[in-house]
Amino acid sequence: MISCILKTKHNIFFAFLLSFIVSFGAFAQGASEQAEVATRGVEPGATEGASEAGAAADPAVLDAGEALFKNNCAACHSAGSDVVVGPGLQGVTERHDEAWLLRWIKNSQSLVQSGDAEAVAVYNEYNKQAMPSFAFSDDEVKSILAFIESGQGVAQAPAAGPEGAVAGENVGQDAVGAVGGYLDIILVVLIIVLIVLVVTLLLISSVLKNYLNKNRQLDAYDAEIVNQRFDLSKIYKSKAVRTLVVLIFVVVLLDLSLDKVMGVGIQQGYQPRQPIAFSHKIHAGDNQINCNYCHTTVYKSRSASIPSANICMNCHSQIKTESPEIQKIYRAVERNRPIEWVRIHNLPDLAYFNHSQHTQVGGIECQTCHGPIQEMDVVYQYSPLTMGWCINCHRETPLNTEGNAYYDNLVKLHEASSKGAFTVASNGGTECSKCHY
Ligand code: HEC
Ligand code: HEC
Ligand code: HEC
Ligand code: HEC
Ligand code: HEC
Ligand code: HEC
């Protein structure tokens, strides 16, 4: 009996330890899961998730579907889960089979009148509002469904900021986020269960103690053990506990410093305050000023160039002349001093990057690398700008070789030796010397 109680005390102690270790493990996992979400969110064009979702469909079909959806359906349906007039269409291909959807979209009323149970149920649920009929071909309807299924319509929600851009990018990533969410819930439940367990054990222990003291003849030795106070100093002194504490400490330290080391020089999301409250949303978004009106060299040279105050003055000698922010431009011009914009994107000197190669020759949109600049009041660094990021895109992006005789022989050679697309990488775009001097 006595030894049993002793064990109980040990058990309490081990329960504590166990709970700590288990919750620590779960926590660490949750954290790394979240870190993964953060890194995945900003791969160029969020390639992974998007290509997974749309893998089955050809981009031309998706584009056609998107156009049809926007022109014919978007007034009443979102591609996500929000109800507009009709239900959100996300997951609709799982709710109904294709044959049913073809009939419904072409003429929902005839389907309702035929007494089809699914159709009547949907019709009644949305207050018997008749959805219009559409004279589409099967392929046209299928392209709309493919577009809905791809999740691209959901990803187009405007991004609010660095976090927004990460979170809104694609559906595949939301799934990863959801896993992170589940882990958190499991963690909380686990902790509650452990607390209940510890309290129960303490109760049992005290009941047993009372019982033994009252109902048993105990000799002095047993009595001492039964009535022994829970002695914290014993825990400190225990070798096992000390090693464990040291071990956990070391693991945490290693984990933190590893994260720091891996993150050196990576400034994704970096969003400094600028000396003038210049907004790309007002200029490039609302007023549709071309990027290269201000970043004049972006299609011609290596650097994109930051506009001088004179370019601002082209307009602001007339516009908003009273605004204190605009007066800062005048002061800079008067003193003949450049405005001291804080640089956001900054590759280390060891790497060579050329804008014109990507914008003019490669035909890549600014937004692929810089994100939705035209929606940013304050610019932030959208992409990680790591070597892995550059190389991934070079592996995945086919070169635009059409009508360029320079490439004809290279493409022929490539097709003879490999089946894959002729990507930047196939043309040597992953050779060290292309990016490093
Ligand atoms: C004028 C508004 C309107 C337009 C335009 C419209 N719908 Fe609908 N749709 C509805 C309503 C309302 C419902 C709910 C059922 C009902 O009341 O008929 C619905 C239901 C649906 C459903 C069944 C959804 C479910 O969850 O069961 C599908 C699929 C659908 N619409 C597809 C489309 C497609 C594709 C287009 C474009 C080609 C389109 N709709 C255009 C109003 C509209
Ligand atoms: C009216 C002039 C103007 C237009 C138009 C404009 N920009 Fe800018 N851009 C600036 C100024 C000024 C800065 C520096 C201040 C800042 O970072 O907000 C800047 C900064 C940037 C930066 C960050 C540079 C750094 O420090 O690393 C990027 C990226 C950028 N612009 C991209 C774009 C893109 C893409 C467009 C078109 C969609 C665009 N800009 C249109 C004036 C402009
Ligand atoms: C092609 C014309 C054009 C150029 C070039 C231009 N702006 Fe603007 N800017 C505008 C317009 C239009 C507005 C919006 C005015 C309004 O809200 O009525 C604006 C608004 C602003 C505002 C907000 C003012 C306020 O108080 O609301 C600031 C700040 C600003 N610009 C700074 C700059 C800077 C800095 C540059 C140079 C890098 C620049 N602009 C270049 C057209 C321009
Ligand atoms: C392939 C990716 C990519 C594309 C496409 C791209 N940029 Fe950049 N941008 C970068 C990188 C990387 C840097 C950092 C360059 C450095 O530090 O040397 C950068 C830096 C900048 C800067 C800061 C000034 C500079 O040159 O370092 C501006 C402004 C800018 N980009 C604007 C634009 C505009 C405008 C477009 C579209 C016309 C565009 N970028 C397209 C990757 C890209
Ligand atoms: C969004 C995709 C994308 C990203 C991100 C990207 N590139 Fe590229 N890059 C391209 C494409 C496409 C080309 C080929 C352009 C052409 O010649 O047609 C290219 C070409 C190049 C070339 C010339 C290669 C050759 O064979 O001549 C260099 C150098 C280069 N990129 C460097 C970089 C660096 C450095 C980064 C990262 C800071 C980067 N790129 C990020 C798409 C990308
Ligand atoms: C497409 C362009 C590109 C190619 C190809 C490329 N790199 Fe890099 N590399 C970069 C960029 C950009 C950086 C700086 C960003 C960073 O630190 O992640 C970098 C950084 C580095 C660094 C410094 C790492 C650090 O953490 O500071 C080394 C070392 C390096 N590269 C070696 C190589 C070798 C070896 C190869 C050939 C196998 C290679 N790179 C090919 C773009 C490239």
UniProtKB/TrEMBL annotation:
Keywords: Heme, Iron, Membrane, Metal-binding, Signal, Transmembrane, Transmembrane helix. Residues 60-152 form the Cytochrome c domain. Residues 1-28 form the signal peptide. It comes from the Bacteria. Pfam families: Cytochrom_C, Cytochrome_C7. The chain crosses the membrane at residues 185-208, 240-258. This is C-type cytochrome. It comes from Pontibacter silvestris. The lineage of its organism: Bacteria, Pseudomonadati, Bacteroidota, Cytophagia, Cytophagales.
